[in-house]
Design brief:
Helix content is 44%, strand content 16%. With 245 residues, the chain is α/β, with parallel strands linked by helices. It has one domain (2-243): Glycerol-3-phosphate (1)-acyltransferase (3-Layer(aba) Sandwich), CATH 3.40.1130. Helix 4 (102-108) links the parallel strand 3 and strand 4 (112-114).
């Protein structure tokens, strides 16, 4: 029964992604930026609902920028979860741009792409991030640079924080967790680490029941003279404290 349910959910998710792609192609050119952001947030929230994934939001999602969200990274679901909680533009690895269907959806949502192996490209992205923050936008990054099982926070890479320092923008720590809706125990279904494949992670998520995404926003903080490495360490500590709340 779980497999049949998962197949139904997979088909619903695929249809929802196709509708999102069609909206981006046909409707987005005529919409204002605010209207696009609202559409993206509503689309992400509906995706979670269709797949039976609950959403709990604690703290205050940002209503406007300039602001850099700094979050831990557990799953391919993280971007959907943060979009559903409140719109933001993500910084993602360049390969995502070329993924079938997902790439156009990510691009339509305003994703900035980075070649992680290229130091020069990191400088380019930091420059574009600073410009976006200067326009009052909300950006989101996963400074761990990879996913974890959610039991702790991996060391942060500090490079992208330079954008917030250059733009004089605050950063807001965000903690992500996935739990069983009934027992409140950590749910390992959505994790995507190590040798895990995306297909296996998606299938585990669809065959599990009662998965809830928990998003906890901390207080925004300014750099206040801290360099990017010191600020990065402090933000990592803040995310860890939010995860243990």
């Amino acid at each position: 029964m779980n497999s049949l349910r998962a197949l139904r959910l997979l088909l619903r998710g695929g249809a929802h992604m196709a509708r999102g792609w069609w909206t981006i192609r046909t409707r987005f050119p005529a919409l204002t930026q605010r209207e696009r952001e609202a559409r993206v947030q509503a689309w992400a929230a509906e995706f979670l609902r269709l797949w039976g994934i609950g959403l709990e939001v604690h703290g205050t999602p940002p209503a406007h920028g300039p602001l850099l969200l700094v979050a831990n990274h557990i799953s391919w679901l993280d971007i959907l979860v943060l979009h559903a909680a409140g719109f933001c533009r993500f910084v993602s690895k360049a390969q995502v741009r070329h993924w079938p269907l997902i790439g156009p959806l990510a691009s339509g949502a305003g994703t900035l792409y980075i070649e992680r192996e290229s130091r020069r490209d990191a400088m380019r992205v930091v420059h574009h991030m600073a410009e976006s923050l200067g326009r009052g936008e909300v950006l989101a990054v996963f400074p761990e640079g990879t996913t974890s099982d959610g039991s702790g926070v991996l060391p942060f890479h500090a490079n992208l924080l330079q954008a917030a320092i250059s733009a004089g923008a605050p950063a807001q720590p965000v903690a992500l967790r996935f739990v069983d809706a009934v027992t409140r125990a950590p749910s390992l279904a959505p994790i995507y680490i190590g040798d895990d494949s995306l297909v296996a992670s998606v299938w585990r998520t669809l065959t599990a029941r009662g998965v809830t995404a928990v998003v906890r926003y901390g207080a925004p903080q300014a750099a206040d003279g801290r360099g990017r490495r010191e600020w990065s360490a402090d933000l990592r500590q803040a995310v860890g404290e939010l995860m243990s709340d």
